[in-house]
Amino acid sequence: MSARSDKVSSQSLSHEYRLIRSRRRTLALVVTSDGELQVRAPMRATQEQIRQMLAKHDGWIRRKKAEQASRRPAPVTFAEGETFPVNGQWLPLQFGNTGRATVVARDDALIVARRLHASPEKIESALLLFYKKTTLERMNAHVSELRRQTGLHVSKVGVTMARRRWGSCSSRSSLNFSYRLAMVPDFVQRYLAVHEMAHLRHPNHSPAFWAQVAEWMSEFRLAEKWLKNEGARLPL
Ligand SMILES: [Zn+2]
User: Fold this and answer.
1) By residue range, what is the domain housing residue 31?
2) Residue 153 C-alpha to ligand 1 middle, in angstroms?
3) For every one of its 236 residues, what pLDDT tens digit does the chain have, with 9 covering 90 and above?
4) Distance 44 CA to ligand 1 centre (A)
5) How far away, in angstroms, is 144 Cα from ligand 1 center?
6) Residues in domain YgjP-like metallopeptidase (predicted)?
7) At what angle do helices 207-216 and 186-201 cross, to 10 degrees?
8) N or C: which end of the chain has fewer CB within 10 A?
9) How far apart are CA 197 and CA 195, in angstroms?
10) Does one domain contain both 160 and 67?
11) 88 C-alpha to center of ligand 1: Å?
12) Ligand 1 mean position, distance from CA 176 (Å)
């Protein structure tokens, strides 16, 4: 996307920003979910134009940064009682008996093997593995159901460790989903399956693509909204 990208500190205001020049026609400001301010600028935009843009939108930038900061998850400590989401439910972490597994989700708690108690690193990798496995199970179930419904061929369902990309669809009709989908509610998981399956017919986000999504899941906008509002709050 970017032709040139570099970090610049603006002198007159306290905003540090990344300048991304491209063939676009107008200047635009973006605050990413990490709280980074980006100035997207045409190739020829001058420093003065950028300075003016920043000055004019100073209030908006501050508001947006504060908003993004409040959406970011609190740092995770893996202490007992700390909550983690499973299928949209936030469950308190508990150390206990998990049998052969290292993590087991119950209705009222997320049980982590007692022997991991003192090692946050081991708890973290056990949780990641749990999320990965659970995501694979959940998404396999959603995709199988859609396959029956639509007759579409899917060669493989996989799970990636991507944090930002919820799903993807390859030209060889394999679907990949982020391990974090085990954290989101069932209807959001289903939406991601619908979304990627619709890409098997339309490898783009054209109106025809969205019509297909709506045909398979009329309330898909609720899921999009959930991801937008809650997605950045998810831990790990
Ligand atoms: Zn898409």
Assistant:
1) 4-71
2) 18
3) 334 445 554 444 568 899 999 999 999 999 987 788 999 999 999 999 999 999 999 999 999 988 888 777 778 899 999 999 999 999 999 999 999 999 999 999 999 999 999 899 999 999 999 999 999 999 999 999 999 999 999 999 999 998 889 999 988 899 999 999 999 999 999 999 999 999 999 999 999 999 999 999 999 999 999 999 899 889 98
4) 32
5) 19
6) 25-229
7) 130
8) N
9) 6
10) no
11) 22
12) 12
